Amino acid sequence: MAGLQLRPWSHRSGVVSGPTTIYASSRVEPPRARQVTVLDLLDRLLAGGVVIRGQITLAAADIDLVDLDLSLLVAAIDKAAGR
Amino acid sequence: MTLLLYGITDAEAVAGETTGIDGARLETVRHRQLVAIVSAEHEPDQPADLDRMLRYERVVQTLMERQALLPARFASRSPGAVQLCQRLEQEHDALVSALERVRGAVELALRAEWRDPAPARSGGVQQNGTGYMLERLDLHRRATVVARRLDPLASRARECRIRVMPRPEVAVSGAYLIDSGQLEPFTETLRDIDGATDQVDFVCTGPWPPYSFVGDVRG
C-alpha cells in the first residue's frame, strides 16, 4: 500500500516552514518519520555543505552520523523535537 | 572573535533582516561575485547541541528561500574577513560552478528501510562466519534490487547520490537535487514505487538546502 503525503510544501508561503517529512510509507508511524527528519538534518549539517579549506575551524566536522548507532540519537532527537 | 559561516551565494542583497543563531546580525563578506554570509561569534567554543543546530538550519533555510545558496557545514568558521576572502579567491571557480548547479533547486532525502529488520539485526549471532557473510551478501543483493527500483526518481532529479545499504537496517539512502517546482511529480513517482515494493518502507524529507551537492568544495 502506498503511503501518504504528510504535509504539503509551504515553501512559497513566506513563512519558513523548514524541511519536513514530505512522504512516508503508510506503515511508518509519524514519530518515526519525525526522527528520520531530524536524522537527515544532522546528517546534512555535520557531513554535508561547503567547507572552505585551510583556515576554517570545524568543531563538528567529519562526523558521519550514518555510522552512529541510531538508538543513541533517539533520546536526543525526541528532546530536540519537544516530545 | 570569529566568523560563523552560513553559506555562500552570489546575490546582491542577501542577509536581509535575518539574524544568526545567537541573535547576532548577519553580515556579508564579498569577494568578486561571491558573497559569504556570516555572523560574528564571540564564543566559538559553544557545544554543538541539537538546539543550536536546529537554529542554524532555520537561518540557512531562510537564506535559501531568497537566493541560490551553497550551505556551509555546521560550525564552519573563519578567523576573519580577510582570511575568508582568501579562501573565496582560492575556491572561486568551484564555488561559482556549484552555485550554478544548485540554482533553482532543492535537495530531498530518501531512506528505504527494511520492513522486516530481522536479517539486518541478526549480526551473525548463532551463525558461523560463512553463514553470516552469506546473509550479508543476500541482504546487499536485495538492497541493490531496491536501489534499481528507485531509478525513476533519478530521472526526476538534476543529480542524485545513492548509497546502497549504508547501514544494515537501511537498504538505500539517497539525496536528490530537484527543481523547486518538481516536488509533487517526485513525490508521485515515489508513491508509485512504494506501491510496487513490499520489502522496504520509505521516508522522504525536505526540501533541504543542497548540502549534498556543493561540489568539491569540502575541504
What does this structure look like?
The complex is a heterodimer of chains A (83) and B (219). By secondary structure, chain A is mostly helical. Chain A has helices spanning 30-47, 70-80; strands at residues 20-24, 57-58. The model of chain A is unreliable at 1-16 and 54-83 (pLDDT under 50). Chain B is of the alpha+beta class and 219 residues long. Helix content of chain B is 37%, strand content 30%. In chain B, a hairpin with a 2-residue loop joins strand 7 and strand 8 (170-179). The longest helix of chain B has 21 residues, at 129-149. Chain B is elongated, with a radius of gyration of 21 Å. The mean pLDDT of chain B is 88. The interface between A and B is large, with 51 and 72 residues. Strand 2 (57-58) of chain A pairs antiparallel with strand 5 (76-78) of chain B, so a sheet runs across the interface.
Strand content of chain B: 25-35%
Q: Major sheet of chain B, described briefly?
A: 5 strands, antiparallel
Rg calculated over all Cα atoms of chain A: 15 Å
Query: Biggest β-sheet of chain A: count, sense, barrel?
Result: none
Q: How are helices and strands ordered from N to C of chain B?
A: EEEHEEHHEHHHEEHE
Overall residue-averaged pLDDT value of chain A: 61
Number of helices of chain B: 7
- Span between N and C termini of chain A? 29 Å
General shape of chain B:
elongated
Cα(first) to Cα(last) distance of chain B is: 22 Å
Helix content of chain B: 25-40%
Strand content of chain A: 5-15%
Overall radius of gyration of chain B = 21 Å
Coarse structural class of chain B: alpha+beta
